[in-house]
């Protein structure tokens, strides 16, 4: 090599080394700047995990990264403990129920994270639905009110004692049972390989291994069961969040409870509390200035979540005292509201009242009839006549009001009161309000991808009394069941306008949540037979009839007498079968169980 070439090589080498040194210096300065400006205390758990993962990757490349020095010792331990979980977990891998892999599954009690109760399955259809027959029955010693969730060839259900049962969908054989708490609860959710369940009056949430029923984690106690606090809701699971509501001890006969509502978000990896939102607020529940029986506004029935925005839509129940509003005259927030919540921080985005001041019903006094805004919500994208798409939230109450709200603002798009209302303006009095009749919604609704909502509304009559003080009670009319249920209607409404497309009157209470597929609507009613003894005592026998209707016009295509009362949370459909949860059922087998509950599987 000549001297000229040597010079060129030396210059080129020097330039290359200078470029490399410059790049290293710039990278070091960038990292240093990042270290200076970074404060781990201001990052969410997910951001912490992502940051540490990035640090570890840079460290593997031999770069001197000192970012960990900005964490406290506890943050280092917590973040590193969760690092393995983060590396193996995709935060975009949450099950919503709409994935191709879930086409024939049912991953939560209302099918999907939007709570549509709509299955795209086609195995059971208009052509073969009249051939549905019982394939098997899973007998249980306790009633089951919620439908099983179905993942492939496995089913999972939670009975009214809180026990979770895993079974084979092909034959109903039990795989395992896990006693995780108490009940009743509203059901299970499956997400990313894990089952999630509430534990009722144990007031916790658990994550369950679906292969053996083992508990992966259990949350801390979320409220005091001694006061009636319990967690009945099905968990809403999305990314790192598991969200549940609360209840206040069921239907307190005197109308006086002490549990003030709250909604809690837990970490899906370890069950730790991320945030807790109190859904009772204002002077009516101010500490030291209000009686402890000013309470309620519980989210006991669960809601829905928009996976594209991370916004929860949660319906809240009525306020206590139920039948006398003397001590709660200044707002009752947030009783009888639908609220939208940012799932990342638990902040309320909007709140729309139903039977409360400020509603389109022009209510002038607070609710004194226990007309909860309840039984879930759904988030839907509708196609308007001009071709544009709009997201709306559906909610309803136990008076029979149903509303469509703008998902971003809560503004009411339309409002409909179902059925005939009689004497609903009357309030409880010492000598009674007189019989009040309304078509309340006492179960979840269903929506499909054809701009249609399907609702079962039950006609109920009650006479409301005050008992001289704050407490009160209700009296049912003759020839009714379960707090005045008598008959009702199953209806299909246009999601865009609220206009009724078709309506089917039922002789008995249709208190079973509808389920919709591409061409079918499954619904049902609770039949009751009364028998009077010679002494005048009236005994009532109850059983349910399941219906399959043509969803376009309500025409009956099939029905089956279940010979048991169907759980009001309704059926599920998956893996080519229809699954019906029941209360007490009579076995035809000589040695079979005579009481308890069951899952009945139908197949064409």
Description:
This protein is mainly β and 604 residues long. The chain has a domain at 3-88. Helices cover 11% and strands 36% of the residues. It contains four helices and 39 strands. Strands 26, 27, 28, 29, 30 and 31 form a six-stranded antiparallel β-sheet that branches. Strands 1, 36, 37, 38 and 39 form a five-stranded antiparallel β-sheet that branches. Strands 2-3-4-5 form a four-stranded antiparallel β-sheet, with no helix packed on it. The longest helix has 35 residues, at 3-37. The radius of gyration is 28 Å and the shape is globular. 48% of the residues are buried. Mean pLDDT is 86; it is low at 1-12 and 27-91.
Based on helices, strands and strand pairing, what is the structural class? mainly beta
Calculate the mean pLDDT score and round it.
86
For the termini, the CA-CA separation is 87 Å
Number of helices: 4
Major β-sheet annotation = 6 strands, antiparallel
- State Rg: 28 Å
Residue runs with pLDDT of under 50 for 5 or more positions:
1-12, 27-91
Anisotropy-based shape? globular
Query: Which percent bin holds the helix content?
Result: 10-25%
Strand content: 35-45%
Concise structural overview:
With about 600 residues, the chain is mainly beta.
List keywords for this structure.
6-stranded antiparallel β-sheet; 604 residues; 5-stranded antiparallel β-sheet; 4 helices; 39 strands; 36% strand; mainly beta; disordered N terminus
Question: What does the secondary structure layout of this molecule look like, with pairings?
Answer:
Blueprint lengths: L2 H35 L7 H16 L12 H9 L1 H6 L44 E8 L8 E3 L2 E5 L4 E6 L5 E6 L9 E3 L2 E5 L6 E4 L6 E4 L10 E2 L5 E3 L2 E4 L2 E2 L13 E6 L5 E6 L16 E2 L7 E3 L4 E5 L3 E2 L16 E6 L4 E7 L24 E6 L5 E8 L4 E6 L5 E6 L17 E6 L5 E2 L4 E15 L5 E4 L9 E10 L5 E7 L8 E2 L3 E13 L5 E13 L5 E6 L2 E3 L5 E3 L2 E9 L11 E7 L1
Antiparallel strand pairs: 1-39, 2-3, 3-4, 4-5, 6-7, 7-8, 8-9, 10-13, 11-12, 12-14, 14-15, 16-19, 17-18, 18-20, 20-21, 22-23, 23-24, 24-25, 26-28, 27-28, 28-29, 28-30, 30-31, 32-33, 33-34, 34-35, 36-38, 37-38, 38-39
